[in-house]
Amino acid sequence: MGCCSGRCELIFLCTFQLVTALERQVFDFLGYQWAPILATFVHIVMVILGLFGTIQYWPHYIVYAVWANIWVTWNVFIICFYLEVGGLLKDSELLTFSLSWHRSWWCEHGPGCLREEPEAGLGPPDGQALVPGIGCALEHGHAEALHSALQILLALLGFVYACHVVSVFTEEDS
User: Fold this and answer.
1) C-beta separation of 45 from 60 below 8 A
2) 36 contacts 74 by C-beta, under 8 angstroms
């Protein structure tokens, strides 16, 4: 099987998807967003399986293709959550499993945000500000939605390439 059959493109796409997922994982850890941390961890594992499937063995493509659909669904939920669509509230503790006061890292550290530090002893014990960043160039919900939109784009492209490579392998086996 040559490189022009979509295999090289899928390897590049999986590698790029892995890099963007690791970047997202870092920001989820910084904000103690436990649900996204778990989902992104599973996504990283599935992308690695897709990458190995691309290099060696084709049934991993199918696992990757199925996961791409689940990942798109998760990211649509994240976009709806942060843009408060359908009764979801971004200030709820849904993504932290009610384990902490934390919220999106972008809430206080987004581009152009000024951070108000609480007076000694008045803020949460973990050091987060009581109010989100002020004067942000990009609201934190939009930053999270943009991250999710990029993940959706990459997952859809990955799904298309994985299906293409599976069909090429199936034709070669026939």
Assistant:
1) no
2) no
